[in-house]
Amino acid sequence: MEDKVQKRRRFGIDEVIMGILLLVMATIAFINVLGRYLFHYSLAFTEEIGVNFFVWITVIGIGIAFERGSHLGMVSIYKMFPKSLKRAVLWLNLALSVFLFGVVDWFTIKTIYDEMTVFHSTSPALGIQMWIYYIGIPIFSIFVFIRMWKGHVKALNKLKEE
To answer: Which residue pairs, CB below 8 angstroms and at least 24 apart, start in 156-162?
Structure first.
């Protein structure tokens, strides 16, 4: 009985957010399809929301992939390294990953600032300020950084077990 309780999967807040975004995307896409076929009228805003939510889901998914170790890697070369070098490669991988997402966040935050202060551009269908769509990237990147660390710790623990 205890094993069944331990095997029960708990979802993280980021996975719940991703599920909700996907549900909203599927619902509005379905409503748009019904609208086109039943009323011969397309809802333009559904594409705008769908595309931006897809970007947010992708960012969250990147974090999940980091934790699971699902990103592409040079596993064959990595396996040839001695244990001490493997540890260094894992740390280098973490540093480069954090740097990459730091750069993405830096430019996204710079773009958000520019949108809020200079451009004031709005989305074509709903007229929403564009920075509202952009803000999801640095916010959801927090989950990416957390899962990067969790994945790194898992990889180090797996290396210790070898």
So the answer is: 156/87, 156/90, 159/83, 159/86, 159/87, 159/90, 162/83
Beta strands in 18-156 (DSSP E): none
Using the predicted structure, report yes or no on whether residue 71 has a pLDDT greater than 90. no
User: Which tokens go with 7?
Assistant: 């095997």
The sign of the torsion formed by the CA atoms of 73, 77, 83, 86 equals negative
Write the pLDDT tens digit of every residue in 7-53. Answer: 677 899 999 999 999 999 999 999 999 999 998 888 888 999 999 99
Which range of residues forms the domain containing residue 104? 2-72+80-161
Whether the Cβ atoms of residue 67 and residue 154 lie closer than 8 Å to each other: yes
- d(CA 111, CA 20) in angstroms, rounded, equals 26
By residue count, the chain amounts to 162
Q: Quick one: pLDDT at residue 49?
A: 95
Q: Considering its fold, how many domains does the chain have in total?
A: 1
Whole-angstrom Cα distance, residue 40 to residue 13?
38
User: Burial of 162 by CB count in 10 Å (0-12 exposed, 13-18 middle, 19+ buried)?
Assistant: exposed
